[in-house]
Design goal:
The longest helix has 24 residues, at 164-187. The chain starts with 6 loop residues before the first strand and ends in a 10-residue tail after the last helix. It has seven helices and 17 strands. A seven-stranded mixed beta sheet has the order 5-2-1-6-7-9-10. Strands 12, 13, 14, 15, 16 and 17 form a six-stranded antiparallel beta sheet that branches. Strands 3-4 form a two-stranded antiparallel ribbon. Helix 4 runs antiparallel to helix 6 (220-229). By secondary structure, the chain is of the alpha/beta class. The protein has helices at 19-26, 54-61, 96-99, 122-128, 164-187, 220-229, 296-302, and strands at 7-13, 31-37, 42-44, 49-51, 66-67, 84-88, 106-110, 118-119, 133-140, 150-157, 203-204, 237-240, 243-250, 265-268, 271-275, 280-288, 294-295.
Length: 312
């Protein structure tokens, strides 16, 4: 039976990844967004300015009530007679008391093709794993971590130069594009939620700053993916002469070179290269601690003395 009344909905999300999803629901007459739950304002930048989450800013512009609980574990929803909750990138575990509260349950927008890459760093994991494609999964949430049944999936290709940053926005836009129609069909009984195949599942945790440290004993092909996966955060970094060095971009195809020490900077056809456990990478852009990011040509003009040094 087709539902014709507006679906009373709470949206739960925090970063800009969630914005296209919230925008698409606000623009669809099927949904009545009665409130938004997001994380508390945080101090940002060197000046530690208290800054609201992007989802809060969008909600307030649309005169939507916003709630920012410090903890959602024992949180009591402020809305009764609720039809639906939609979650996108909230980054906190939502308790069963909330999952089971709405008439149609909680629907999640997840940035991978589940059951592959359950967890927080799903975008980075797809690049690091060498996947040719990833996508968005619209799923009904249960008490597990991204274990609920799948309602709909749509894929996108991972291009050779995609970083976690570029892929993040592709997936964010795709989530907003497919969300309203998917949820509408689910509520109207046109789409069924299908259980995941747990045998094909893997989990990826939340990245920490130290996870961006490059291991030069790994082969060049892996490290090329690693550098893209860590861009823009936490960044792929190493150190030389006790100074930090970020490698922000390398050429996609490794070069055949194995006569240098692992982590050694050298010239390859007048280009800046670094030796890995197997083959080498041509560095396009980098940043030495305390200096501005620059291209490799500029780096060679100003810091030619670094040729032959070992990154650790």
């Amino acid at each position: 039976m087709t539902i014709v009344m507006k679906i009373k909905t709470i949206f739960i999300g925090t970063p800009d990844f969630a914005l296209p999803s919230l925008k698409s629901l606000l623009q669809d007459d099927f949904f009545d967004i009665v409130g938004v739950i997001t994380q508390p304002d945080k101090k940002v930048g060197r000046k530690q300015i208290l800054t609201p989450p992007p989802v809060k800013e969008l909600a307030l512009k649309n005169n939507i009530p916003v709630w920012q609980p410090e903890s959602i574990k024992n949180y009591q929803l402020p809305i009764t007679d609720l039809d639906l909750i939609v979650v996108a990138a909230y980054a906190k575990i939502i308790p069963e008391s909330i999952l089971n509260y709405p008439k149609y349950g909680c629907i999640n927008v997840h940035g991978s093709l589940l059951p592959k890459h359950r967890g927080a760093s799903c975008v980075q994991a797809a690049i690091l794993n060498g996947d040719k494609e990833t996508g968005i999964t619209i799923m009904k949430m249960d008490k597990g971590l991204d274990t609920g049944p799948i309602i709909y999936q749509e894929s996108v290709a991972i291009e050779p130069k995609d970083t976690a940053g570029s892929l993040y926005y592709k997936l964010s836009d795709l989530g907003g594009k497919i969300l309203p129609e998917t949820v509408r069909k689910y509520i109207n009984g046109e789409l069924a939620a299908v259980p995941q195949d747990d045998a094909n599942a893997n989990y990826v945790g939340m990245l920490k700053k130290e996870d961006g440290k490059i291991d030069w004993s790994k082969d060049a092909e892996f490290n090329e993916r690693f550098i893209r996966a860590m861009q823009p955060w936490p960044g792929a970094f190493s150190s030389v002469d006790e100074l930090g060095m970020k490698i922000t971009e390398v050429e996609h195809k490794p070069v055949k070179a194995d006569k240098y020490q692992q982590g050694e900077l050298f010239l390859y056809e007048n280009k800046l290269a670094i030796q890995c456990g197997k083959d080498a990478l041509l560095i396009s852009r980098l940043q030495l601690e305390g200096k501005k990011e620059c291209g490799s040509d500029e780096f060679l003009r100003g810091y030619n003395g670094y040729i032959g040094k070992i990154l650790k």
